[in-house]
Amino acid sequence: MNKLLPVAYLCILFAVPPRIVKGPYIQNLTENSVTICWHTDGPANSRVLYGLRMNQLNGAIFNNQQLTDHYITLSNLEPGTRYFYSFGSSGARLQADSTQHFTTGLKKNKK
Fold first, then answer.
1. 36-79 pLDDT per residue, tens
2. How far apart are the first and last CA of the chain?
């Protein structure tokens, strides 16, 4: 017996994850935090992995909200330290390359 699947089911089954249309870019870089931003052409959740080496991204921040404007803040970072990161969503492969890094600001001396 040949059964046809409803069109709505096929759309979900073969859904294409949203594409990144802008970013990533860095905002609000301080000595112990940073915000990583990007934009997608459709709603998706947000995920950032980060760490001290490109091949060891041990930290993770996840936002389950379905958004097109993604802003993930990493906090409790070490001052004056270089971090690598990858970004994306749970439904799409994370975007990462060796140029995706930032260095936190140096700790300010108290006077």
1. 999 999 999 999 999 999 999 999 999 999 999 999 999 999 99
2. 81
Phi and psi angles of residue 87, each rounded to the nearest 5 degrees, phi first: -145, 160
CA-nearest of 17, 32, 19 to 83 is: 32
Single-letter code of the amino acid located at 6: P
Q: CB–CB of 38/92 below 8 Å?
A: no
Residues 6 or more apart whose CB falls under 8 angstroms from that of 28 comprise 34, 35, 73
Query: CB-based burial of residue 39 (10 Å sphere; 0-12 exposed, 13-18 middle, 19+ buried)?
Result: middle
pTM, to two decimals:
0.81
